[in-house]
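Record type: monomer structure entry
Structure origin: computed from sequence
Chain ID: A
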Amino acid sequence: MDQSIEQKILNLLDAHHTMTLATLRPDGWPQATTVAYAHDGMTLYFVCDRDSQKAANLAQNDRVSLTIDHETPDISAITGLSMAAHACAVSDPEEAEKALEMFGFTWSEGDMPVESLADQEELQVYRVTPTLISVLDYSQGFGHTDLVAC
């Protein structure tokens, strides 16, 4: 991967904290939801309820598409990322804790802080590993995209 493109991807990942994540429902329809994410290099992490539709979808099919971007009134200033990726539940407690720490906040349940995932049994950390990344940068021309295979 070209180092300048890699740095552009990492800068965009650093600049944002939410992504739109599309999973596949059992009936074949895509389901897009907004989730908070943290990242370690190109690997992204998100958390969701173990009983959510998103978790059920991922248990059947780990393929996801996602976008990371922001609104801008100037169409020529659009920048963002679009990815094809695989999302899997993190089973290693140490990796899960590290991922939660990257979010920079603690989970809370009512007025009681939850310090670790072990204290929040209904939550699951997911690791998202990209396979293909589209880097959008309309400042280089309308619809400009650099495609990066991972």
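Annotation 1: The helical segments are 3-15, 53-60, 93-102.
Annotation 2: The CA atoms of residues 81 and 135 lie 5 Å apart.
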